[in-house]
Amino acid sequence: MSKEYDVLIIGGGPAGLTAGLYAGRSMLTTRLFEKELIGGQASITDIIENYPGFPEGITGFELAEKMREQAQKFEVEIDLSEVTSVDLSGALKKVTTPDGEYVAKSIIITSGVRPSKLEVPGAAALTGRGISYCATCDGPFFRDKRVMVIGGGNSAVEEAIYLTKFASQVTIVHRRDELRAEKIVQERAFKNEKIDFLLDSVLSRVSGENSVASVAVKNVKTDEEMEVAVDGIFVFVGNLPNTELFDGMLDLDGSGYIITDDTLMASVPGVFAAGDVRKNNLKQVVWAAAEGALAAVSAEKFIESQE
Ligand code: NAP
């Protein structure tokens, strides 16, 4: 027997938790599924300093905990399991997890993104053996060691700065001669004596027996290659949307992000998307939270319109 709700939310990052808060506070029966980390990608960010209300900044973990607590205060059920399939075809949308089946009048998809992998020879075998996608998780293992950060966006540059707490040297390897990160973040990195840069450069190989020992770095303008000894590699080369579950069911853009209308309704009535998984113009916690709120309000209106 399926358990019935007003709203099911897939994904427990800032968008999902805020959608839960709004849905719960509107007295809609709501269940939220999260397969990994409450808070999503934001929860593994060291300091978030551009979410209003926290002038000193707040750790991603603390902010996620506060959001979880606030959603649960309004009786959102948080289910730490993986959604293995969905059926969006009927009036009641169905979600299946290893523990059960759930149906609801509306679904809000807030499944976020996951990091793109470093695709160079040697990288797959050394992932978890010196190659990491999470500085807050693995940074402390690299005390007084030399690490590289791959990428030039906000994640790469902010996490490089964080890693200087532990590492003796942090080299940012970026494929262009200009970073993509916000200027304020770039300035901090430029001023940090532990950070140096290899610009116009990409990794062409990672080497090491049981753990990372060195990398080949290629200058993309001159094609020159050099071998550099490193102990760790932190990869921040962008993200991929977690939309495989909805393949063929919802309209996605060319990169796999969910396309919605202004109310955040996807191409199937009653299905909404919010946050990083949606095709939008700003990937920020404040924006994800705002979209979560809008998706919940839109879901409520949709449910009322069906009654
Ligand atoms: P991002 O902004 O997409 O940056 C990815 C970086 O990786 C870019 O510099 C890109 O180079 C590089 N890259 C992509 N593919 C590559 C490849 N195959 N080989 C080498 N380099 C590659 O990703 P992000 O930094 O994870 O950020 C994602 C979103 O979250 C952004 O919108 C960002 O602003 C936001 N964010 C915000 C904050 C904050 O507000 N404090 C913190 C973290 C993230 P190019 O520059 O040449 O494309």
Number of strands: 19
Summed up, the domain count is 2
Low-confidence stretches: none
- CATH C-level class of the largest domain is Alpha Beta
N- to C-terminal distance? 23 Å
Beta-strand percentage range: 25-35%
**Average predicted local confidence, pLDDT:** 97
Structural class by sheet pairing and helices: alpha/beta
The outline comes out as elongated
Identify the bound ligands: NADP nicotinamide-adenine-dinucleotide phosphate
Helix content: 10-25%
Per the CATH scheme, the topology name of the largest domain is FAD/NAD(P)-binding domain
Order of helices and strands: EHEEEHEEEEEHEHEHEHEEEEEEEH
Give the biggest sheet. 7 strands, mixed
Integer-rounded radius of gyration: 21 Å
The fourth-level CATH homologous superfamily of the largest domain is: FAD/NAD(P)-binding domain
| DSSP helical segment count | 7
CATH architecture of the largest domain, by name, is 3-Layer(bba) Sandwich
Which characteristics define this entry?
seven-stranded mixed sheet, 24% helix, 19 strands, FAD/NAD(P)-binding domain, 7 helices, five-stranded parallel sheet, 307 residues, alpha/beta, binds NADP nicotinamide-adenine-dinucleotide phosphate
